[in-house]
């Protein structure tokens, strides 16, 4: 394992953890939420705005960047950091989830996956080797193994997909050549504790720089999600960061940290912003509600982000009704800042030995709204 990647577990409070992960482009203080920049951009937000709100890790997507503009072009810029002008850590996922979400237009075998481009219908093939080579060309600090994400409640297929994921991980390890990239393995196994434990044990023995939990937040219950996180984190090594893939609602962050997760990502905050919904400590609000039409207060009076420091809900509603692009930018800044500040507050609570009280207080105040309950997995 490269010495470039070191995880310092600074403090634990129960299962909640505070740490720091070194990468070639800087430290990642955990727990952390990572904004998703699917196509080498976090939608509606500039890199300077991301820096201003304290983002330290962002994601990009192998599947999308392979199709457009192509990894060769990005490699000609020496990788994503220069291409998108982001000098902090980047994580690329393997493209596995996007490929498998194409359901009726892909064919899986033990060697890899054939799939149709969602852009032009052309046929392509991903294998573990190809996914790693693409990610090496993209040049992210953290890269993900090519895995198979199965329907979580189908035991037979979950077992097949888990075994295939393990074999593909070994091929990813054999293919990887760059020492300046940290390869994370991915635990699969659906909602079945015995499969999840088997997968976590297999992944743990490979001594990778970090480990991920995949195949959750795809339709299973919150109870099942929490149970799988607990089962896996009881086995994954304590001295490596743990990444819960594709999970990013405020209550899921709090519950995940409570159960030992370090890194989260999701398209949720920017997608909700484009659907006129904003986070507050008391749940989501719909900015298009007529009650906001003359409201002088910001989204959240306790928030110090650029949006809340400068603009009223009345102004934001006006932008939305007038279909002004600025609305998406301003609400995205707020929603991203909300999650970044939430994980920072959670980190401080762990360091101060008060995470239980912090989590209870947040969850007692948080009331999830169903009016904006959007599907947020898959393509952004």
Write up what this structure looks like.
This protein is α/β, with parallel strands linked by helices and 380 residues long. It is 40% helix and 19% strand. It has helices at residues 47-52, 62-67, 71-76, 80-83, 96-100, 128-138, 155-175, 193-205, 222-233, 250-258, 268-274, 306-310, 313-321, 326-351, 355-365; strands at 7-13, 16-23, 26-30, 32-35, 58-61, 90-93, 106-108, 113-116, 123-126, 142-144, 182-187, 210-213, 242-244, 263-266, 277-280, 283-286. The strands form four sheets. An eight-stranded parallel beta sheet has the order 4-14-13-12-11-10-6-5. Strands 1-2-3 form a three-stranded antiparallel beta sheet. Strands 7-8-9 form a three-stranded antiparallel beta sheet. Strand 8 (113-116) and strand 9 (123-126) form a beta hairpin. Helix 10 packs antiparallel against helix 15 (355-365).
Descriptive labels:
single chain, 380 residues, alpha/beta, TIM Barrel, eight-stranded parallel beta sheet, three-stranded antiparallel beta sheet, 15 helices, globular, disordered C terminus
Strand order of the largest sheet: 4-14-13-12-11-10-6-5
Poorly predicted segments: 370-379
Structural class computed from helices and strand pairing: alpha/beta
User: And the CATH topology of the largest domain?
Assistant: TIM Barrel
Tell me the count of domains. Answer: 2
**Average pLDDT across residues?**
94
Q: Specify the overall morphology.
A: globular
Largest sheet, described in full?
Answer: 8 strands, parallel
- Roughly what percent helix? 25-40%
CATH superfamily of the largest domain: Queuine tRNA-ribosyltransferase-like
N-to-C CA distance: 33 Å
CATH level 1 name of the largest domain: Alpha Beta
Rg, Å, rounded: 20 Å
């Amino acid at each position: 394992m490269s010495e470039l990647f070191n995880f310092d577990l600074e403090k634990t409070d129960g299962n909640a953890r505070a740490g720091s992960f070194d990468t070639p482009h800087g430290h990642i203080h955990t727990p952390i939420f990572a904004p998703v920049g699917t196509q080498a951009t976090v939608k509606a937000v500039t890199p300077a705005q991301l820096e201003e709100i304290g983002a330290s890790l962002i994601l990009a997507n192998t599947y999308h960047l392979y199709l457009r503009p192509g990894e060769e072009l990005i490699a000609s810029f020496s990788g994503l950091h220069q291409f998108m002008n982001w000098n902090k850590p980047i994580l690329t996922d393997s493209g596995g989830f996007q490929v498998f979400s194409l359901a009726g237009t892909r064919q899986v075998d033990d060697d890899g996956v054939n799939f149709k481009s969602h852009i032009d219908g052309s046929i392509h093939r991903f294998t573990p080797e190809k996914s790693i080579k693409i990610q090496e060309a993209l040049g992210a600090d953290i890269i993900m193994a090519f895995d198979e994400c199965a329907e979580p409640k189908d035991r037979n297929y979950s077992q097949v997909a888990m075994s295939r994921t393990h074999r593909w991980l070994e091929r990813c390890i054999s293919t990887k050549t760059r020492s300046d990239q940290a390869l994370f393995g991915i635990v699969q196994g659906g909602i079945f504790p015995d499969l999840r434990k088997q997968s976590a044990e297999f992944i743990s023995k490979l001594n990778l720089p970090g480990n991920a939990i995949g195949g959750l937040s795809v339709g299973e219950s919150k109870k099942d999600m929490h149970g799988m996180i607990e089962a896996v984190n009881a086995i994954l090594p304590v001295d490596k960061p743990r990444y819960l893939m594709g999970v990013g609602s405020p209550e899921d962050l709090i519950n995940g940290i409570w159960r030992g997760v370090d890194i989260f990502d999701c398209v949720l905050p920017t997608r909700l912003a484009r659907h006129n919904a904003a986070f507050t400590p008391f749940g989501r609000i719909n900015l298009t509600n007529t009650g906001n039409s003359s409201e002088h207060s910001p989204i959240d009076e306790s928030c110090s982000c650029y949006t809340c420091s400068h603009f009223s809900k009345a102004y934001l509603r006006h932008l939305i009704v007038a279909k002004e692009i600025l609305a998406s930018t301003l609400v995205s800044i707020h929603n991203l800042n909300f999650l970044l500040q939430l994980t920072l507050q959670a980190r401080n609570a762990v360091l101060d030995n008060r995470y239980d009280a912090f989590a209870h207080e947040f969850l007692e105040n948080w009331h999830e709204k169903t009016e904006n309950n959007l599907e947020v997995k898959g393509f952004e």
